[in-house]
Amino acid sequence: MCWHVIRERCAVSFHYYPDDCSDLSQAENEMGRFLKQYSLEDKTQAGKIMSAVGKALSSSAQQRLTLLSPLDRVHQEVKTFRQQAISDTTNTVKIMEQGRTEYRGALLWMKNVSEELDPDTYKQFGEVSVRSSTGNSYIDILNNSVLHTVQLFTNLINPVVEALKYVSSLGYDMLTFCIIEALATDQSKLEDLQLSQGLQALSLFTGLLCRKYQFDLAGLLQYVLNQLKVGKSYDLAILREILHRMSGIDISEEMTEEQLESMSGGELLLQEGGYYAQIRNTRRNAGRLKDALVEHNLIMPFIFLMAQQRDAIIFLDDPERHCKLAGRLYDQCQGTLVQFITFLSLQLTRDEMQTQCLNIDRMMGEFHVPADTAFCFHRNLFEQKVARLFESKEQAETMKSGEKSKSFSKTIFSAASLHVCNEIAAAIRPLYPARVWDELGIVFFITFWSLQSSDLVVPESAYQRQIQQLKEQIQQIDTPASGWNSTKKKREIERLENLIERLTNEQAEREEHVTRVRAWLMTERDNWFQTRLATKTDTITQFLQLCIYPRVCFTATDAIYAAQFMHVLHQLKTARFSTLICLDRIFNDITLPTSMCTENEAHRYGRFLCAVLELVMRWHASEEVFNQECGQYPGFVTVFRKTYQGLDANTKPDQLQYENYRHVVHKWHYRITKAIVACLESGNYVQIRNALIVLTRILPQYPKITQFGSAVERRVNKLKDEEKDRRPDLK
Questions:
Q1: Where along the sequence do coiled-coil regions lie (predicted)?
Q2: What is the pLDDT of residues 597-646, one digit of tens each?
Q3: Global pTM?
Q4: Any residues with CB less than 8 A from the CB of 555 and at least 6 apart, and which?
Q5: Can you give the residue ranges of every domain in the chain?
Q6: Which among 250, 169, 174, 170 is positioned nearest to 207, based on CA atoms?
Q7: Region of 190 on the Ramachandran plot (φ > 0 left; ψ -120 to 50 alpha; else beta)
Q8: Which one of 49, 179, 239, 375 is least enclosed by Cβ atoms within 10 Å?
């Protein structure tokens, strides 16, 4: 995407450069004459300087004017080349369609004649048969010519796709076969440790073709699946473009904070907030893609193979493969997997999910799908089960008692959620060693993985921001200068007002849902860490290893959710959970987590650290806030005192005081600085790149201490000079 933007900007600059060059030359020439004229009147040293500058400006203007002629010639040649290339491609498509028509006519004639073949028509039948075979080969040559063109000239992809509107349905099937053939025979899918431009161009062409025209998608999807079966993930670029172009869903790490906040809202806010804005215009194409996946039973195989291939890239692929390439392939596999699951969650109905989806214990145990992927795929299904059970119980109790209250709804929702959690617990308990559940409660584990950011918080500012934008649109439309006619204006205003009402209702529904979830968490908080076989440190270790870090690395929204969930555990005053130990383990040494991340995972890890640092610095900024939110909370207990016989039962555990907390925060900032400097001085490409990414992400909250910021800045400046000619991508 960045390359296309640069190309477009260069084209615009090239278009306006001759005019700007001419204007600048005239201005320079006038300035030169002005200086030379006044230099004649000034006999001092300043006059000599003006004369020299004037001559230099006049000479520069003349030299710049000489550029106009070759620039104009180059512009005309480029324009002629583009027009000729588009014309040749259009002619190729027309010739291909004409050959296909003759080919189909020959096949039809052969079918009719072959039914009653006699000696008189035998010779003619043979001639037509030869012509049919020749026509088929000619069509293949033309198809390959079209594919070769779009691979070489990416700016011709859209014109070629538009030109293919004259192709028949059989033509699309043949073109699909040629695409698969090109993918299967092309050996150069990598260039400079990344996917080749040809593969990326062919993927984009395929995605646009699938979006614009209706043809059978099963062949392309099955080809990508077969490549995954043999351990090749390069062609996932095809699936990613098909998903993006047909459903409007794209996974990117370049989300703005506003878009990331909107991801915590309901479905309507997701569509209106910008990140999933294209979903509204892709319902028909998304339905076609969903039907193809369901009809050919491709949903679960794709989930299994992408999840397995993601780990195989690290552990089973060529050990000599460069870390940079392995990381990019891992990110592509992870991004496509999340994109695919997001597409299914938005398109599959409740019945289709239950029909297509395997139980989570089979996914994790039989097909070795990691917990992060399995729970991400089942999360909406679990939510639907809880909602269905909650609605049925609420209706039954309402009919029985004749009234409905919020506290009663919270109780029913808690019971429904616990029932679903117990079902999942019974299924996945045998999949982990018993020691894990001794150190980490299984219901807590399921609770963490079953919830998401929209269950914990309501993005009120995102809702208000979107409603305000809609109100501003209404004001703009309602002005006389808008140019809308009365009927169209009235219809559009009604649509926007209806959208505002729906957003308001959705916000109220999300607030009620979050309230019920919080009530359920409050009910279960004392049951999560009941075991006495593990210390608080062991519990925190398992929590970070099995919950926090896997989810932080999954998606950007999951990284924010992990920080929010830790805050919720603290707010609930969860028994036997130490917020202080958890934060200390996170910040004590970030060198290894930073070094082990891929490029996209480093972005997510940085977002997580920034979210946690934001909470830490809010407590650090005000003693009043600290005492109110941390003073009497078990998460900030430093020493637990057991009550023995004869000892005062009212003895309270030691709480961390505000001044001591400030010293602890200073230590955490020092640890972060030490880890960042170690990565920057390591000389390892991955460590340096990830450290720079993490630094960029935590910039709103770090550095807060001038000494630490100066230390990092010196290392970065030194690194910039050292890597100037060695690794330009780092520079």
A1: 486-516
A2: 999 999 999 999 999 999 999 999 999 999 999 988 988 988 654 443 44
A3: 0.79
A4: 251, 338, 604
A5: 1-83, 106-368, 369-548, 578-640+653-730
A6: 250
A7: beta
A8: 49
